[in-house]
Amino acid sequence: MNLELLALQVRERINQLKTEQIGLRSFIQSDQALWEALEKAIQELTWVLNKLEAEED
């Protein structure tokens, strides 16, 4: 698997998590821990994506 394909897959997963986070906003407001867990996952995947894209250059 090349870095470009992996970066694409990570970017797609970030978008999926963001969509899930937005869709659950009203429910998550009462469950801050779940909101924070989703936010952390998005941040970690964004970090991985940035590293992958830096390797491509």
Word description of this protein:
The protein has 57 residues and is mainly alpha-helical. It has one domain. It contains three helices and no strands. It is elongated, with a radius of gyration of 13 Å.
Structural key phrases:
57 residues, mainly alpha, 3 helices, 0% strand, elongated
Per-chain topology:
Blueprint: H1 3-23, H2 25-28, H3 32-56
Helix pairs in contact: 1-3
Strand content: under 5%
| Mean pLDDT over all positions | 87
Which stretches are low in confidence, meaning pLDDT under 50 for 5 or more residues running?
A: none
Q: Compute the CA-based radius of gyration.
A: 13 Å
Task: Give the helix/strand class.
Answer: mainly alpha
Helix content: over 70%
User: How does the major sheet shape up?
Assistant: none
- Assembly state of the chains shown: single chain
CA-based shape: elongated
What is the number of strand segments?
0
| Count of all domains | 1
Distance between the termini: 17 Å
Per DSSP, the total helix count is: 3
In N-to-C order, the SSE pattern is: HHH
